[in-house]
Amino acid sequence: MRIVLVGPPGAGKGTQAAYLAKNLSIPHISTGDLFRANISQGTPLGQKAQEYMRAGQLVPDEVTIGMARDRMAEPDAAGGFLLDGFPRNLSQAEALDGILRETGTELDAVLDLEVPEDEVVKRIAGRRMCRNDSTHIFHVEYSPPKAEGVCDACGGELYQREDDSEDTVRKRLEVYHSETEPIIDYYKAQELVVTISALGRVDEVTRRAMEALGRSA
Ligand code: AP5
Ligand code: MG
Known about the structure:
Strand content: 5-15%
CATH superfamily: P-loop containing nucleotide triphosphate hydrolases
Bound molecules: BIS(adenosine)-5'-pentaphosphate, magnesium ion
Largest sheet: 5 strands, parallel
Number of strands: 8
Number of helices: 9
């Protein structure tokens, strides 16, 4: 399956993607995680992305689209993928259509995670991420690690993302409304959008998502 996951910052895209990718046996491709990996490795691409991410703005399309295209061309993505955080504006959505056309493939669904703004603010404020593996995501209240500051899964150090400060989150939400939400209408016109509520326990949301995708969890 080829799926795009969309939803505001803090909706739970990364959290759900880890389970959905496993259930559907497809790789989880997160442009945010790819940028963060480049930043921690100090690559030129990471250096370029960092200033935009710090400001809560989108990294320019010429950087983002090439990176996403290269990742989708890797062998593990030949049979499908779950895109998290890409596309994020209309020109990226059009570029993705072009990439799919070139490879003679198409999207199966765009899964839209709906969460009220006050809830995403709470989710982001308490989020803790693992330095070793960006798919290990915790929350100080909703999904606390057994030992404070330590990842349950691998023992890695837990940290707070640099762009999770209050001001940057406000900017990211603005950018989501102005630049990313329009892609939902773009995909509605292609009859690809399935919208689910992302409120409730993580496993309940996964079950809802699998049902919406026509799969049982
Ligand atoms: P990115 O990393 O994609 O961030 P985002 O879209 O803002 O989303 P988040 O990762 O913040 O939230 P999430 O929905 O994954 O939530 P999570 O599962 O962690 O992008 C970061 C930046 O990179 C962008 O601002 C931009 O600069 C750049 N970028 C990335 N892609 C780009 C692109 N295509 N073009 C240009 N620039 C790009 O969950 C959040 C918290 O909630 C966690 O603590 C979790 O434990 C908790 N939680 C999850 N589910 C539940 C639940 N059901 N109940 C209670 N708590 C829950
Ligand atoms: Mg994420």
